[in-house]
Amino acid sequence: MEKPPPRQQWSSLLHKEHRRSDRKDLASTISRAQERISTKTSDPQAADFDEAKILFAQGITCARSGDLETGAVQISSAYLLDGRSVKFVAKMADDIGACEKNYVLDGKLLTDMLENESPTSFSCTILHIMLASFLGSTPGHGQELIAVAMVRIDQLVTCIQKNLEIEDPSKHILGGCLTRKALLYQKSSFQMALGDFKHGMRSLTDALKIDEFYTQARESRACIWGARHLRSDRTVHAEWKRVITENHVDNRGNEVAYAFLVLTTLNDSSLGTVGDARAWYDKMRAAIARKDEIYGKRRQDELPPAVLNAQSKLDDYAGDRNIWDSIAGIERITVCEKTGRACLKCGATETVERKRLNQCARCKAVNYCGRECQVADWKEHKKLCKILKKGNNEQKKK
Q1: Whole-prediction pTM value?
Q2: pLDDT tens-digit map of 22-38
Q3: Lesser CB count within 10 Å: N end or C end of the chain?
Q4: Which of 41-50, 150-159, 261-270, 325-334 has the lowest mean pLDDT?
Q5: CB–CB of 42/248 below 8 Å?
Q6: Claim to verify: residue 293 and residue 200 sit in the same structural domain
Q7: Are residues 355 and 276 in the same domain?
Q8: Which one is predicted more confidently, 281 or 170?
Q9: Rounded Cα distance, 153 and 122, in Å
Q10: For 91, which DSSP code?
Q11: Alpha helices, DSSP H, located in 141-214
Q12: Are residues 148 and 177 in the same domain?
């Protein structure tokens, strides 16, 4: 593999970065690092997260004790296993104790490991990819670091393709975490950070070709499809339903999956009723509560955008409980009558003249056997009619 970019391109960014680790933030980091999430759930991803945190702490301890090579391998393995385990600050506060330093990777230690490693080693390459993820948003050389990191990823993928034994966990190469699918997933993150969503999706698709059950990649791709309206609601809906079936019940991504199922159901009536959307919404709320229980409570503004959008969308369909009940009533009538529709007021399936029922001209969602029933029901139907009409108009615009 080619050598990484000159040291000046990345070390200068670390020196320019003046943000130090905050005492309160560091205390929170240490608390999370010491907590064992896997004791709260049997979710395999939680177990991976705990293992990655242990690997990272061991790597930092080794590196700070002078064994930079072992430290680099362990930290790189932790990053590949679960990148959320890596806590990075460009510059450590001067008054941080030795014990506290063992939970944080700072710019100086990262620089020492990069200079100690062979430029073409696997661990050095992963450290450079890590560096791009840490400093990619920095003005100046940030985007250049991302571009170089993507080249390095391509080189690693090519290298693994020529020697697939590298991916064999029994070989213990970077803890068995150095795989093509993991590298392609990281590459897609860089591509999306640069606004290249087309190639970002292609990288995720390539990862899924290697392993069709690499659900993490499927989730990320479905997010792009749904958020940027790149695929039909039906396609996005089917993709998220598959994600739900593959995920553990406590998977931290379930809240987003259910949120998109809410949104796609409301956008396309052929995917389900409003009651179905409400059922998905209830599952989304349960997933949010479970994630907060396992990983820590969040504020409303810290929830994923898809979750916030689902909450907002449902507000348009239901101002109060009575409207939900009215909608459910309409759905029950429509679903139960296999041979036709029924009058919302009296339940009749035809008019007095034995003709087809009259449809509400505004919302086109309910039916009446005659003017008498429609007038009698108008007071209750008026508010609901407005909501249904708004939904129809939004559907026509798409």
Answers
A1: 0.73
A2: 555 656 666 677 788 89
A3: C
A4: 325-334
A5: yes
A6: no
A7: no
A8: 281
A9: 11
A10: B
A11: 142-162, 180-193, 197-210
A12: yes
**Whether residue 297 is found in the same domain as residue 267:** yes
Buried b (16+ CB within 10 A) or exposed e, 69-106: bbbbbbbbbbbbbbbebbbbbbebeeebeeebbbbbbb
pLDDT category at 144 given cuts 50, 70, 90 is confident
Please check whether residues 147 and 271 belong to one and the same domain.
Answer: no
Asked whether residue 261 falls in the same domain as residue 358, the answer is no
For residues 211 and 325, give the distance between their C-alpha atoms in angstroms, rounded to a whole number.
44
Say what the alpha-carbon torsion angle 195, 200, 202, 203 is, to the nearest 10 degrees.
150
Q: What tens digit of pLDDT does each residue of 345-362 get?
A: 777 777 777 777 888 888
Find the range with the poorest average confidence among 91-95, 129-133, 204-208, 229-233.
91-95
Taking residues 179-189, report their average pLDDT. Answer: 95
Reduced to 3 states (helix: H, G, I; strand: E, B; else coil), residue 342 is coil
Domain boundary among the residues 296, 316, 336 is at 316
Tell me if 227 is assigned to some domain: no
Instruction: Give me the pLDDT at residue 395, please.
Output: 56
Distance CA 184, CA 200 (A): 9
At residue 317 the predicted structure's pLDDT band, cuts being 50, 70 and 90, is low
Asked, for residue 222, whether it belongs to a domain, the answer is no
Taking the C-alpha atoms of residue 145 and residue 130, their distance in angstroms, rounded to an integer, is: 10
The CA distances from residue 103 to 99, 226, 238, 269, 389, in Å, are 8, 37, 41, 50, 56
What is the Cα–Cα distance from 319 to 100, expressed in whole angstroms? Answer: 50
User: Which residue is it, tokens 């990983």?
Assistant: 295
Do residues 21 and 164 both lie within one domain? yes
| CB of 106 closer than 8 Å to CB of 90 | yes
Residue 202 sits in which domain range?
7-212
SS3 58: helix
